[in-house]
């Protein structure tokens, strides 16, 4: 059920800033449209019953049904594969759809997986609850400890799954070090690269077998899509597309793929602005006595520093910090913000802020949150594209209001 690809391949000769615009582009439009056409169709007509039979039998390339392949989603898949340096990619309806389809394609009842102890809340719920129901056990460990990783591997270990930087407090993992432990074993290394994008980090260069993204975030960049991407070898992507993604149905709509293709064209310039603004916000936060702890890859004492320039090209645009107070103070601070939006996402033009313990990481048990270092006062801010001075001014007035309220109550 493969779909015919009529797309141009750059063979990775272009720089990433060019790839986000041109990689995988379809030049076969009969009208010469500059913008990629949107194939908003559920199904595709066959020229004959024989052709339909051949396509279903895999004897002829071509499109059948948009859940199985679509020219618009195919163009996005080609572009993302080239950006991450892999042979192929699969587009999914959501980031969690991508993660679930990918991981479930390679495990069965009785298998074991190893997962980073700091990951997105719904990923944690998938592995700790749903996988357990179907007989797949997950151990959540500190993957910066390679000795612990080595001792945690079992005969039935099939996957190692990690995020770096991790959601929400930006803990980073040395992908090369993890790969070195498992490279001689029949274990796939899967890396969630959502926070960095392929412009700031390419896990394949460091041994990752598969990379997943929530394309909802930086890849789309405009807050109007939920989607996921998986990049990997042609064989692995064919397995994912032909089994879990196809049969569970978490495939991306052509319209969402078209919106992401449009968003990708500005990814390079957007990431530059995101990172510049985040650096300025970080510098401001370091000057506040009411900010107790800051988690940011650009901080001198952050464990990302040893990876900077090698695994990571920049600090990214997400910062987590703790206020010098309690949960009530953290919530009061959030409620005082005027321009910054209280919302659970990242990578949008708008600066977004949220309270992980009660929002994105609420699926964690209190014990798991404590182990992962997600305190009740932890706040995560995804720095947007507004003028940095305006972002900082809004944070400043909210902190000042918070400080005045607590001084008054004292």
Automatic annotation (TrEMBL):
Record SUPFAM superfamilies? PLP-dependent transferases
Per its UniProt record, the required cofactor names are: pyridoxal 5'-phosphate
Q: Could you name the domain of life of the organism this protein comes from?
A: Bacteria
Q: Which family does it belong to?
A: Belongs to the trans-sulfuration enzymes family. L-methionine gamma-lyase subfamily.
Q: Which Gene3D superfamilies would you find in this protein's record? A: Aspartate Aminotransferase, domain 1, Type I PLP-dependent aspartate aminotransferase-like (Major domain)
Protein's UniProt name? L-methionine gamma-lyase
Give the matching InterPro entries. Cys/Met-Metab_PyrdxlP-dep_enz (IPR000277), Cys_met_metab_PP (IPR054542), L-Met_gamma_lys (IPR006237), PyrdxlP-dep_Trfase (IPR015424), PyrdxlP-dep_Trfase_major (IPR015421), PyrdxlP-dep_Trfase_small (IPR015422)
Q: Which reaction does it catalyse?
A: L-methionine + H2O = methanethiol + 2-oxobutanoate + NH4(+)
A Pfam short name: Cys_Met_Meta_PP
Q: Is Lyase one of the keywords UniProt gives this record?
A: yes
Q: Which UniProt keywords are given for this protein, alphabetically ordered? A: Lyase, Pyridoxal phosphate
* Entry EC number(s): 4.4.1.11
């Amino acid at each position: 059920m493969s779909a015919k690809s009529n797309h141009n391949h750059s063979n990775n000769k272009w720089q990433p800033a060019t790839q986000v615009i041109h990689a995988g582009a379809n030049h076969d439009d009969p009208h010469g449209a500059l913008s990629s056409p949107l194939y908003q169709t559920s199904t595709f007509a066959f020229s004959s019953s024989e052709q339909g039979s051949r396509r279903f039998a895999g004897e002829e390339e071509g499109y059948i049904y948009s859940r199985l392949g679509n020219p618009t989603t195919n163009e996005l898949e080609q572009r993302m594969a080239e950006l991450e340096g892999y042979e192929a990619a699969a587009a999914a309806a959501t980031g969690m759809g991508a993660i679930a389809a990918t991981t479930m394609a390679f495990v069965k009842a009785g298998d074991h997986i190893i997962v980073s102890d700091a990951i997105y809340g719904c990923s944690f719920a998938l592995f700790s609850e749903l996988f357990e129901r179907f007989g797949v056990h997950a151990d959540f460990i500190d993957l910066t400890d390679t000795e612990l990783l080595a001792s945690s591997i079992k005969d039935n270990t099939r996957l190692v799954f990690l995020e770096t930087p991790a959601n929400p407090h930006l803990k980073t993992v040395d992908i090369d070090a993890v790969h070195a432990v498992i490279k001689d074993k029949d274990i796939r290394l899967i890396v969630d690269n959502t926070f960095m994008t392929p412009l700031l980090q390419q896990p394949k260069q460091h041994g990752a077998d598969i990379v997943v993204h929530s394309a909802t975030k930086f890849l789309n960049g405009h807050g109007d899509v939920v989607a996921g991407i998986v990049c990997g070898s042609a064989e692995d992507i064919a397995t994912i597309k032909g089994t879990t993604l196809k049969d569970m149905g978490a495939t991306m709509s052509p319209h969402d793929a078209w919106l992401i293709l449009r968003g990708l064209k500005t990814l390079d310039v957007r990431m530059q602005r995101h990172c510049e603004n985040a650096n300025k916000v970080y510098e401001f936060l370091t000057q506040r006595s009411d900010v107790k702890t800051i988690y940011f890859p650009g901080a001198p004492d952050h464990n990302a520093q040893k990876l900077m320039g090698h695994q990571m090209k920049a600090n990214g645009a997400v910062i987590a910090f703790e206020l010098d107070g309690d949960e009530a103070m953290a919530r009061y601070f959030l409620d005082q913000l005027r321009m910054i939006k209280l919302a659970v996402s990242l990578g949008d033009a708008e600066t977004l802020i949220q309270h992980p313990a009660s929002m994105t990481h609420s699926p964690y048990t209190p014990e798991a949150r404590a182990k992962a270092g997600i305190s009740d006062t932890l706040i995560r801010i995804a720095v947007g594209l507004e003028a940095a001075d305006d972002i900082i001014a809004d944070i400043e007035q909210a902190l000042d209001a918070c400080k005045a309220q607590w001084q008054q109550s004292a």
